[in-house]
Amino acid sequence: MTVKAKKHLGQHFLNDKTVCQRIAKAMEDSGFDFKKVLEIGPGMGALTADLLQSDQFETHVMEIDTESVVYLKEYFEKLDGKIHENDFLNTDLKAIMGKEPFAIAGNFPYNISTQILFTVLDYRDQIPLIVGMFQKEVAERIAEPPGSKKYGITSVLLQAYYDIEYLFTVPPEVFTPVPKVDSGVIRLKRNTVKQLDCDEVLFKQIIKMAFNQRRKTLRNSLKAMLIERQIDHTLHEKLFARRPESLSVEEFIYITKLFTTV
Model confidence over 107-136: pLDDT tens digits? Predict the structure, then answer.
């Protein structure tokens, strides 16, 4: 039995055993203590097979493709009772995985990969680790430090809570069907910050306003908010004269605190 990749689900099945082994090893070598891993979109179980070999954690999978679910049930006895036919983006993960820490793994569908990570943020205190495959451009953007055009909203919001490493690049020819782009594997490790030292809702608002006009300085992109809150930006002239891609997470936190002390 084989499973036909479905375009509307963004399925590209991984065929390279070495890549699967490297992802599984990146989970085991993370240094975090967790008892369960949830793989998103296992397809025909190429990565699942290597995750199941680990004695460090119990592997669960979440799959919405009915054909893939039938395949997994037939060929992976160890997944008995651990296959969840749910849409990850609309699932109460605590109901599925319990209240203990668990990790996330997967060759994520390109069309929802960023949404997957933003859903993870809602469970960030329960998910200490994510190792995933993304379109290379997206993976680089997520892991990118300040100072380049790749650094943006996604970079800042995720790096506020996770330390992110770009691990390796995966060529198109190891997938079926073959995608038109390279892929990249990244590892996100939860940092020690339980809660940002600022208003987190305002933090997100400021980041989005700044990067939505990324060619402008902060003085101009945040002008409406500066006027509304009667903040004298000249007291921090050098900071507000910069463009958003040059600012670190810590500097965005500092700016957020300036807007909440008036």
Answer: 999 889 999 999 999 999 999 999 999 999
Same domain, 154 and 224: no
Burial (Cβ within 10 Å: 0-12, 13-18, ≥19) of residue 207: buried
C-alpha span between 23 and 15 (Å, rounded): 13
Backbone angles phi, psi at 119, to 5 degrees: -70, -40
CATH number at residue 176: 3.40.50.150
Please give the C-alpha separations between residue 200 and each of 127, 142, 216, 249, 257, in angstroms, as whole numbers.
Answer: 19, 19, 23, 12, 10
- Give pTM, 2 decimals: 0.93
Q: Which domain holds residue 256?
A: 200-260
Is 207 in the same domain as 125?
no
Give 37's contacts (C-beta < 8 A, 6+ positions apart): 27, 51, 57, 58, 59, 60, 102, 103, 104, 105
Shared domain check, 74 and 123: yes
Give pLDDT tens digits for 58-112. 999 999 999 999 999 999 999 999 999 999 999 999 999 999 999 999 999 988 9
Kind of pairing between the strands at 183-190 and 129-135: antiparallel
Is the CB of residue 258 less than 8 Å from the CB of residue 232? Answer: no
- CA–CA separation, 166 vs 154, rounded Å? 15
CA proximity to 93, closest of 72, 62, 56: 62
Which two tokens mark 190? Answer: 């939860």
